[in-house]
Amino acid sequence: MSVLRSLHARPIVDSRGEWTLEVRAESAQGIVAWASVPQGKSVGSYEAASVEVKQAIENVHEIIAPALIGTDVTRQAEIDSRMREIDGTENKSKLGANAMLGVSLAAARLAAHENHLHLWQYIRALYGDAKQAPPPRLFVNMINGGLHAGNGLQFQEYMVIPKQENIWDAAQKCALLYGALRAQIKKELGNSSINVGDEGGFAPAVSDDQEPFRMFDEVLRSLKLRDAFDFGLDAAANSITARDGLGALYRQMRQTCGLWYLEDPFGEEEFSLFAELQRELGDSLLVTGDDLTVTNVKRMQAAHENKSCRGVIIKPNQIGTLTETLEAVRAARTWGWFVVVSHRSGETNDDFIADLAWAAGADGIKLGAPARGERTAKYNRLMEIESQVKQ
């Protein structure tokens, strides 16, 4: 039995220069594993609640650790269930989803080490599906807007999605595009427009919400790669104040820009508007929930019953434990939904979600641009996993 001997939390800085926490777990055998917790800026109202970092650290040391020390670290469901029981709230507001997630992910990584398994192998065993799925498609945020940038774009993420055969091939094409897009933006708009947003994508000084897709199209055609990519948009409509005309704009983007993937086109309560758009464009447009569904099976069930979407974003910090994250993936699969594991805008160098996406057979993964260390750590981990699978 691999017994948990200690838990220690400390404050660290995330990619936006804001404080979050890292949790280190140690076994009785002296093996140590860690996990750090990302944070979002565009946060849905129904996400599990995080607490102030100082409080989260105190909760790990004073409440969670005494309750879990001596537990078999391979009993992931028991560890997560015990924390939920101690918390006792619907949204994890007592212990904090950030404190709980740090412990949950650190315990999983420690258990993988104790069992001499790659993390993705261990998570796959927890998930309960031994099949080797195709690698997740890369959803690459090349241009930032909305709350993630200081430009005139109202939408948050303009993405390219390579039609890949493998992660290495996809990453190579995306890195090539990133460099070419930088040069094109600089040529058209000058040096001041090659700044980047929170997720590493460029933040050009434009206000036409369709302009980024024109840029993608032009650069990809110059590279002779247009047919190798689909286009995607995270509208993050919860953060948009003037929402009139959004549906018509999405329909136009589908027709003129070749939009294939659309995330959070409306607010978090607008199940019927999601459903109307999904019903009209569902065969040609992948409508996906994020703030609508928040990795919460109850919210996902409501979206399923309303036929609001056929894709879902999975973010562990929206729900607070690995066990509940995997439950959300299983639920999505029962409805035939497209599953996209996602980072947050305030990230750390922890690459856990790369292993999660691979282990759960996710259809896609959002990591931001192929730039900035907290993003590239996850791209590099995906390529490393791919090489491990081939061995």
Task: Give a written overview of the molecule.
With 391 residues, the protein is an alpha/beta fold. It has helices at residues 53-68, 76-87, 97-114, 119-127, 167-189, 211-222, 246-256, 271-281, 297-305, 316-319, 322-334, 352-359, 373-390; strands spanning 4-13, 19-27, 32-36, 137-144, 157-162, 229-234, 259-263, 286-289, 311-314, 338-342, 364-366. The protein has two domains: 4-116, Enolase-like, domain 1, CATH 3.30.390; 137-390, TIM Barrel, CATH 3.20.20. Helix 2 (76-87) packs antiparallel against helix 3. The model has no long low-confidence stretch (mean pLDDT 95).
CATH class placement of the largest domain: Alpha Beta
Report the CATH topology name of the largest domain. Answer: TIM Barrel
Shape: globular
CATH H-level homologous superfamily name of the largest domain: Enolase-like C-terminal domain
Uncertain runs are none
Report mean pLDDT, rounded to a whole number.
95
* SSE pattern: EEEHHHHEEHHEHEHEHEHHEHEH
- The total tally of domains equals 2
CATH architecture of the largest domain: Alpha-Beta Barrel
Strand neighbour order, sheet with most strands: 4-5-6-7-8-9-10-11
Quick overview of this protein structure:
With 391 residues, this protein is α/β, with parallel strands linked by helices.
Give short descriptive properties of this protein.
alpha/beta; 2 domains; 3-stranded antiparallel beta sheet; 42% helix; 8-stranded mixed β-barrel; 391 residues; Enolase-like, domain 1; TIM Barrel
Protein topology:
Blueprint: E1 4-13, E2 19-27, E3 32-36, H1 53-68, H2 76-87, H3 97-114, H4 119-127, E4 137-144, E5 157-162, H5 167-189, H6 211-222, E6 229-234, H7 246-256, E7 259-263, H8 271-281, E8 286-289, H9 297-305, E9 311-314, H10 316-319, H11 322-334, E10 338-342, H12 352-359, E11 364-366, H13 373-390
Parallel strand pairs: 4-11, 6-7, 7-8, 8-9, 9-10, 10-11
Antiparallel strand pairs: 1-2, 2-3, 4-5, 5-6
